[in-house]
Amino acid sequence: MSDAAHTPRAPRTDAAPRRIGGLTVSPLALGGSVFGWTADERESFAVLDAYTEAGGTFIDTADSYSAWAQGNSGGESETVIGRWLAARRNRDDVVIATKVGAHPDRRGLSAATVRVAAEDSLRRLGTDRIDLYYTHRDDESVEVEEIVGALDDLVRAGKVREIGASNLSAERLKASLAFSAREGRARYVALQPHYSLVSRDTYEGPLRDAAARHGLAAVPYYALAAGFLTGKYRPGAAASGPRAGSAARHLETERGRRVLAALDEVAAARGADPATVALAWLAARPTVVSVLASARTPKQLPPLLAMAGLALTERETELLERASA
């Protein structure tokens, strides 16, 4: 029997689409960091097929994925996604988000870098437009006026539909939005913050307040804390895998152990996977429109997609928030 025969059918995820600016996206954004890294092209195509067959429409990547892997130079994920789009002829059916500023050959956010990096991404993706273009991390050596101006040029040229920012301070976000309003330029509509049950202070506070005040949509990354919130990593068990070190370090903290116990309690009561519960909690947080998670194989998708159908009770939410405080 083939692997496909043993793979549970992924639950539908298109029942509750969300809005990011003028884009309609699914509750789960499929992370592309694994494509061309821990998932080869065949495996990546299988994940992308399973995700879209389940109703998923929001695919996230970056020009730098996966430059950190031996033998890679960056752009591998975009290239795989571009080949998949060409093979499936479904470009108009999906929202593609990518990022600029961290590719080894295109570092920073000068106007010249943004312009050339966008052309590189368009070529690798095999498309004429990027639906959502994020600055990957802030470049404080460049004034926000230059960064937003460069992104605005891409929007005016029809090469980018909406713009967003990742790893940006509340102060720089507010300055960027003020410039956009003052000069009539494209404005950020999305943030991609580091945010999860074991990393709340990386978003909650001034940045989330600014996002709420200005109507920005949040799409958190590290939503499962490098796999820790799947429940895969347990005290006393040997950790393995490319992200094991990052995930297992949460076992060394009291908060991490509390969160794991709370997830187990809620998951057992609801007959759900811990990952489903963790993503459902995150998806219900203020300003969060979609949550970002990746899968190396189709078998890893069902618990991620199931979060769209899990509404936590007030008691369950309070239990998780006390544990993660």
TrEMBL record:
Spans traversing the lipid bilayer: none
Protein name, per record: Aldo/keto reductase
Annotated Pfam families: Aldo_ket_red (PF00248)
Domain NADP-dependent oxidoreductase: 28-322
